[in-house]
Amino acid sequence: LYLSRIWKYYGNDIKDDFYTAVNHDKLSAARPVQDYFSGTFNDAAHANTQEVQDIITYIVNLGTKNEKQAKIKAVYLSALEMQRTSGGIEPLKPYLDKVKAVRNANDLTQAFIDCDKGIYTNGLITFGITVDSKNTSRYLPCVNLYEPSFTYEDFASDKYKTAFINYAKALFLAGGRSDADAQAKAEEIYAFEKGLSMHCLRSEDLANVEMTYNLQSFGDLCKEYGFIDLHQIALAEGFDLKDSDMVLVPDVGLSYNLA
User: Fold this and answer.
1) What pTM did the predictor assign?
2) Mean pLDDT in consecutive groups of 10 residues from the start of the chain, 259 residues
3) What is the rounded CA–CA span in Å between residue 45 and residue 38?
4) Where do the DSSP E strands lie in 48-133?
C-alpha cells in the first residue's frame, strides 16, 4: 500500500487518486521509515509520543500540594519506571505457581483464566469482538490466538534467534531457574514458535479478507481445542457462546496447529 501510494505520486493523473492529491507535497518528500508497517505516515505518532513524555516528565518534577496531586504523580512515576525489578518475581509468583501446578485440562483452563484476570497474560486462545469485514453493519465474536514473535522468514535469521533466546533465557533466570535450565527452556520455546510460524499467514495475506474471513462454529472450535474448556474461558471474558454460534478465526493454519 505504501509503495503503491508513492508510485501513484509519479503517475500522470494525480487528480484521479484522492489520497495522492491531498498528500501531494507529503508524498514528494516521503521516505520509508524503519517502523513503518501500514498505510499511514507516523510523524504525528512520533510527535505525540515525545509530547506525552515531556508532559509526564513535567508532572513528576512538580511538587505535590494535596493527595490528588500525589496520586497523579505516583501514576506517572509508575509509567516512567521501565525497569521493574525491585520486587523480583514475588508479584508474579502466585501465577507462576498456578502454571506449575497444572495437572489436567481443568487446571490449565483455570490457570489461563486467573492469569488473564490477574496480570492480563493471555493463554493460547482468548475471545474478542470485531467488525464483520463482509458486513460492516454488524459485529462478530473472534478468537485471539497466541502468535509467534517473528515471521517465519525472520526466524531463519541467526540475529533474531540469538535475540529471542537471550531474552527468553533472561526471563527464565528471573523466574528462578538455573542457567542451564533457562538456556534449555529458551531454546525449547524458540523451536516451538519457529515451528508454529511455518503455518501462519504471511504478512501480505493478513489484509486479504478472502484469506482471513474464516467462520467456524464455536462447537467445532471447542472440539479442536479439546485440552482446555473454551466454554469457561469464553464465559470468563464475557462471552456466553453456544455451540452453534459462528466465530471468526482469522488464521486457520495457526489455530489448527496451535491446537
Assistant:
1) 0.64
2) 54 56 69 53 72 78 73 72 62 85 89 85 85 88 91 87 93 87 95 92 84 94 92 91 94 90
3) 13
4) 125-131
